[in-house]
Amino acid sequence: MINTGFRGDLIEVLFVLVLGTAAFIITQRALRSLFTIYTIQSVILSAIAVVLFAEHRTLSLLFIALLTLVIKGFVIPAFLRRTLVVLPTKRDIEFSYLTPASSILLSAVLLFIVYTSFSNVAQALFSDRLFFLGGVIGVSLALMGMMVIFSRKKVVSKIVGYLTMENGVLLFGLFIAEMPFIIEVLIVIDLLMLIVLSTIMAFGIDSSIEAFHKKLTQLGLRFED
Amino acid sequence: MQNLLLVIYVALPLALVGIFWALGRHGLGQDNRFLNLFVVLQAALFLGVTSWAFAALKLPVGFLHGEYFYIDSLSLYEILVTSIVFLLAAVYSRGYVSSLVDAGELDSSILRLFYGAFCLLEMVIILAFASNNLALLWIFAELSTLFSSALIVTLKARENIIAALKYVFVASTAMLFSFIGIIILFAMSRSVITGGSLNWTSLFEAAHNMDPRLFFLAFSFLFLGFAAKAGVAPFHTWVPTAYVRAPSAVAVVSGTVLNLGLYAILRLYAIGYAAGAGADLRLFLFIFGLFSIAVAGFSMLKRTNTKKIIAFSGVESAGLLLIAFGLGSATALYWALFYVLGYSLVKSLLFFCAGIFHRQYQSNKYFAARQALKLQPLASWGLILGSAAAIGTPLLPVFLAKWNILAALGQVSAGMLAATLFFLLLAVIGLAYYFIRLFGQEPEGEIKAFRTPASMKLPIIVCLTIILVLGLWVPGGLDNTLGRIVVSLGL
């Protein structure tokens, strides 16, 4: 439970910012901007964990904040930016199934549906209104990430969608139940491996095998003999 | 002593990956027979120690204080099925991978990656079954996606990359929703277990104090991820794409990933049942089970690709197992578990044979297969008997299971039985029509026979032998094990 008014207000402001970044991720076409918005979103999540730590003094919250900041605020964005050097296109113009405008509209509908569904179990699951909001925004963010995966054509944009989903799950976890820290670490390792593998495969899609190997070498992922 | 079992499951694959890495990209590092020998030895050792555990250990046993790892009859049974399938696939790979390298479809420089991922995939699947902690199982299930997709992408084709990416995105997206379910379950557990827990054993013991409404919510999220792993419709879309593109040996071992998804669903259902959410969960499983059989039935009617029709047969079997779990009766569960073993062997057999057909005709399409019975008699008979077993022909093991599950379903709902039978019939027609067309192709010119290596024939003969035996006789040890598992689930 958040007792202090200022911290509660601060978290609400951060919620709005998280939703703002999600809206940008849904509509943004330039890949570099997409990575930057993801970085900002991860830093905001890290800030939320710090505010929760200030309130509850649970050390694992501080570790989660640090882990999020280092891995999602620096390591993953740096890796993704590096991929831009060898990617033939810098913008993801095409959308399938959904246009950016309809995606935003659908996001609002999803937010409402999640809010209504969780209202029924709010008392049993959440300690107060703020935690309830955190849970709702977390699940909605995961759904918005899924929308990005299905509405974007470029694999790199889909990867950002997946990362957004993962941020949504993290937010949900922060406001419902802190998982044992070792589990959080393992999940981040798993996330890193999946991102690296997906990115490697993304290069393979529009390359001949020789060009693919060359790109991997440029990324430092494969060493020539 | 039991901790040694866990050490073997973990240390051996990691040691092999280290050896493969140390060998480098030249000489022995590119020698398929040499690398394959290690993989066969690992698979054989895993099967050996698992069989030993069945015979010598008093189950259940916990590892490292039982907090994170634990095996009971159900998990050891699943590990045994996994070990059998991996050993057969490892032996098959000896000749199969050589032929892929000779044909230039697989670069010998990535053989180490192929076998390394193969070893690690077996390790993570076994560890997932041995996990006492749901979050740990989730992580191992995610890692199985990672290693499976790495295996798919080893073939030199753009379509393989697309298939692997589809697999990663569909399975991992669904698994993230599962994690939301895990968080809800953990939050719930804190009100009934001090400090909260995600251990199967603790959750099962405390289940009767849980709020059934909340458990249903958690289950709904958890189901999304594990259903995607199990190939349950509508989350099955990765299954046909990945199976078609995957090398046959990989398609065989990926079948154990489907078992993993179903295993998690069964465990969760048992907890939900104890929590008092049984009626809602049963309806949930019936709906998805029936839908999967329907999707598979209609999809199998118009297939032109052997591997794809086998993949849809897998979707059908996942649907049937969900219905059996939902029934929850001792008979239905007993035969569902028997079906897991029987169908794993049948599907392996079909993929082994499909792999030989692909080497012979360089295609998975039915119309490419000419003079099949003459050129590849063993693979042809394997496909005929395997498909007959898959549809539930009497005297073959799947028949016994299907018959008993459907009989149990008939006692619960005649309408459900009629609908299930109708969609199963579509699957039977689809499979029968497909193979009639395949073996009815007119001969066209002289075709040079592919010399099938003995290592590719042996797993087919073993599969056929076990299938024929299990169709007539359920060994006493297996019968006892299945009986124990049913009792332990408490449904």
Give the beta-strand count of chain A. Answer: 0
The helix/strand class of chain A is mainly alpha
Main pleated-sheet profile of chain A = none
Average pLDDT for all residues of chain A: 81
From the N-terminal CA to the C-terminal CA of chain A, the straight-line distance is 58 Å
Element-level helix/strand string of chain A: HHHHHHHHH
Shape of chain A: globular
Annotation field: number of helices of chain A: 9
Q: State the shape of chain B.
A: globular
Approximately how much beta-strand content do the residues of chain B carry?
A: under 5%
Strand order of the largest sheet of chain B: 1-2
What does this structure look like?
The complex is a heterodimer of chains A (225) and B (491). Chain A has helices at residues 5-27, 31-56, 59-86, 100-119, 122-125, 129-151, 155-176, 181-205, 209-219. Chain A has 225 residues and is an all-alpha fold. The longest helix of chain A has 28 residues, at 59-86. In chain A, helix 3 (59-86) runs parallel beside helix 8, helix 4 (100-119) runs antiparallel to helix 6 (129-151) and helix 6 runs antiparallel to helix 7 (155-176). Chain A is built from 9 helices and no strands. With 491 residues, chain B is mainly alpha-helical. Chain B has a domain at 303-491. Chain B is 78% helix and 1% strand. Chain B has helices spanning 2-23, 32-56, 73-102, 111-130, 134-152, 158-189, 200-206, 212-230, 238-245, 248-275, 278-300, 306-327, 330-361, 372-375, 377-391, 397-412, 414-439, 454-472, 476-489, and strands at 61-63, 69-71. In chain B, a hairpin with a 5-residue loop joins strand 1 (61-63) and strand 2. In chain B, helix 6 (158-189) crosses helix 9 (238-245) and helix 9 packs across helix 12. The model of chain B has no long low-confidence stretch (mean pLDDT 91). Classes of the chains: A mainly alpha (225), B mainly alpha (491). Chain A binds chain B through residues 121, 124-125, 138-139, 142, 146, 149, 155, 158, 162, 165-166, 169, 172-173, 176-177, 179-180, 183, 186-187, 190, 193-194, 197-198, 201-202, 204-205, 209, 225, and chain B through 25-26, 107, 135-136, 139, 142-143, 145-146, 149-150, 153, 156, 158, 161-162, 164-165, 168-169, 172-173, 176-177, 179-180, 182-184, 186-188, 190, 196, 211, 213-214, 217.
